[in-house]
Amino acid sequence: MDLTVRDSARLLKVSEKTIYRWVQQGKLPAYRVNEQYRFNRAELLEWATSQRINVSPDIFAEPPGSGGATELSEAIRAGGIHYRVGGDDKALVLRSVVDLMPLPDAVDREFLLQVLLARESLGSTAVGNGIALPHVRNPVVMHVQRPMVTLCFLERPVDFDALDGQPVHTLFTLLSPTVRAHLHTLARISFALRQPAFADAIQGQGTREAILEACEAVERSISEPGEGK
Q: CA–CA separation, 212 vs 72, rounded Å?
């Protein structure tokens, strides 16, 4: 639990009073530590994504000495973009996705599938508008050396128990080597999906080139001085 009320308000671009109200209403996951609220960064980002709340670009600032983070476009290139992915339900779709992921030979694909299914049993990773972000809350090291996002467009939409009731037609399946990389990439996806050009490329199932170009445009907007201030 590394975030304060003030941190969370800045991250979600709302007032501290709004954060307190959401906590009191039971909407926002929070913990009491020494009579003060604290928030888990992964849970906060997942919640913001599910509520379609656009996080502040400030989240992408890297602390001194932490080294660079992988851009979302690089992670998608590493994981690949696939079309007409088969499966008649959530489990079969995730199996198809895992089979498509360009994983090292040492990775146990069956184990990864079970981890993803277990995560879904805790709460759907569908974020609305027909999109889901399958991942594990606490990344498991599986000989993956850099973040990987496998983008899959389904042959037929399937029920993912989404809060908005819409079946899912697009999956961003996330695999990361560390917690920090996991949070960074999850936040990048959430932010990109709130940007019109990228969202349109995804909803229109654009070409690989069009999707990556839209992704890189989002990344440039984040890196511009003063952006989001």
A: 9
